[in-house]
What we know:
- It is built from 11 helices and 12 strands.
- The chain is α/β, with parallel strands linked by helices.
- The protein has 2 domains: 4-94 and 174-264, Rossmann fold, CATH 3.40.50.300; 107-173, no CATH class.
- The strands form 2 sheets. Strands 6-7-8-3-9-10-12-11 form an 8-stranded mixed sheet, with helices on both faces. It has a 4-stranded antiparallel sheet with strand order 2-1-4-5.
- It is globular and about 65 Å long.
Amino acid sequence: MSKTLLQVHNLKKHFPIYGGILNKKVGEVKAVDGLTFSVKEGETLSLVGESGCGKSTTGRLIMQLIEPTDGSVIFEDQSLTELSKKQVRLTRERMQMIFQDPYASLNPRHSVQKILEEPLIVHGIGSKEERKQRVKEMLEVVGLSSYHAKRYPHQFSGGQRQRIGIARALMTKPKLIIADEPVSALDVSIQAQVLNLLQDLQKKFQLTYIFIAHDLGVVRHISKSVAVMYLGRIVEIADSETLYNGALHPYTKALLSSVPIPDPTIQKESIPLSGDLPDPSKPPQGCAFHSRCEACMDVCKTQKPTLMEVEKDHYVACHLYEEDKQFNDK
Ligand code: SF4
């Protein structure tokens, strides 16, 4: 049985809002508000939700690129939140990120050779010759060629640039990769190629992924489990098959109903998601989703639902299922 590689417990990030003549703190945005989950070695957990739900902030918190307000991140049995900055930097050799916009994340003035060997230089790994050899290997692993090392980012297509971003993330032989919307900026035809590549690399190097996406359709085949986020909280988390075949939370159901099906003969119920995501600095009282939920009840407007296990390993934060459970318990 696989070992747990990453544990996140009650993770929070609240950003202060300053205002007024004295520029005092007048409020806060609870970008991430008490996340708990774990990921086993070699598996993929996807974090899914609309822009502004806190999924990218979660990725940055795990990497310790920003400091959490509360909570812990345990990676390889080591609590990252208790480490010094220097120790955290050393840990990054084994945790890497892939970003959404490969063009923005690659320095346009550096050759691919320089871009790829940079993480090795930062971590003091290998001689010049060894670094050159590793760049060659990683370019081939991601489907490019060694002669690409001399070229510059603008000489590549979007898909090729993302392959360079993936090669860079692999340079230090990491165990965990946080992929923040890695295919969102790519054409649909290229998305599938990059997703297949990520799956092949996972098998080849026993990689563990946290995959961040706004579309449940994109992560379906890559995820072992999926956590759906809404305004900084997980509203539903389950293994991929359970979630795609038996989603319970009204928000997850609405997201799923908007995923296109390639077979036009299959009809499925369309659940509209009305309105926009509320202002995160003024989230609705009670269930944060109540202003957009077709199943909203009175209790939803005043009481925040807690994430509870509704079926084995299937957690949902929704009063609909709390009532079911209370009813069944009677
Ligand atoms: Fe809808 Fe109420 Fe469930 Fe929130 S708690 S998702 S408002 S039914």
